[in-house]
Amino acid sequence: MSEQQSLWQFMVQQSDKLLDQTIAHIGLTCISLVIAVAIGLPLGIWIAERKRAAWVVLGIAGVLQTIPSIALLGFMIPLLGIGALPAIAALFLYALLPVIRNTYTGITGVDPAVTESAVAMGMNKWQILLSVQLPLAMPVILAGIRTATVINVGVATLAAYIAAGGLGEFIFGGIALNNTNMILAGAIPAALLAILLDFLLSLFQKARLKRMRKVAVILPVLLLLLSSFYIIPYTQEKILAGFTPEFMGRQDGYLGLKSKYRLNIPTVVISDAVMYKAAFEQKLDVISGYSTDGRLKAYDLVTLEDDKTIFPPYYAAPLVRQDVLAKYPQLKPTLELLSDLINDSVMTELNYRVDYEKQLPEKVALDFMMAKGLYKKPQSGASEGIIRLGSKIFAEQYILINIYKMLIEGNTNLKVVTRTGLGGTKICFDALTNNEIDMYPEYTGTGLLVILKPDKKTLDPIISDRNKVFDFVQKRFSDQYQLSWLKPIGFNNAYALMMRRAQAQSLSIKTISDLKSYLSNENHQH
Amino acid sequence: MIIANNISKDFNGIQAVKDVCFQVNEGQTLVLLGTSGCGKTTTLKMLNRLIQPSSGSVHINGEDIFSLKPEILRRSIGYVSQNNGLFPHYTVAENIAIVPKLTGWDKNKISQRSHDLLKQLKLPAGEYAGKYPDELSGGQKQRVALARALAADPPVLLMDEPFGALDPITRAGVRKEFLELPELKSKTIVLVTHDVQEAFELGDQICLMDQGKIIQTGTPKDLIFRPASDFVRNFLSHQRLQLELSSLKFEDIWHRLPDAPSGLEADLNSIQSLWEGMELLSEKKQEKLLVGHADNSAVKEITIQTIQSVYLEMKRNP
Question: Which residues of B touch A215 (CB under 8 A)?
Answer without folding.
Answer: none
